Amino acid sequence: MRPLVIDKEAKANIAKVIQHAENNKYPRSFMIARMKSGEIPGDLGPFTCHIQFGFRCVYTVEEQPFGWCHHLSVSIDAPGKVPNVQAIEFLMKEFGISRPLSEAKVVYFEDIGNIKAVNILAEK
User: Is 28 inside any structural domain?
Assistant: First the structure.
């Protein structure tokens, strides 16, 4: 298990990503177009932050069929591995998701090359 360190720099980077996501919300029409085009927000720098010891977080605010939600994707720099549950839940809180992972609307795994990401959709 790798350590997760949320220091002042990490908190500042997370705050920038949250602010960018809040200022650039994805409405339902955009989400439908994105699914067709294959565009991934993780490829767009302002939605992404890296945290010490190999964590990568991508955060967007999206309009899903159940309403507006947080979408947090967490991965680590270890091919074929996923972050541990405790790290994911801690990062959820840092990104403003107050409910536990077990209460998320949707949780799914995504293969991005040799990286596996855990995606969480939680109501806002």
Answer: yes
CA pair distance 70, 122, nearest whole angstrom: 5
Structural domain count of the chain: 1
**For all residues of the chain together, what is the average pLDDT?**
89
Domain membership of residue 103 (yes or no) is no
pLDDT at residue 48, rounded to an integer = 94
Whole-angstrom distance, CA of residue 46 vs CA of residue 57:
11
- 110 lies in some domain: no
**What average pLDDT score do residues 87-100 get?**
95
> Which spans in the chain are helix H?
8-23, 28-37, 85-94
Q: What angle do CA 113, 118, 124 make, to 5 degrees?
A: 135
1, part of any domain: no
Residue 1's closest CA among 56, 53, 50, 73?
Answer: 53
Q: For residue 56, give its domain range.
A: 16-96
Note the residue count of the chain. Answer: 124
- pLDDT band of 112, cuts 50, 70, 90: confident
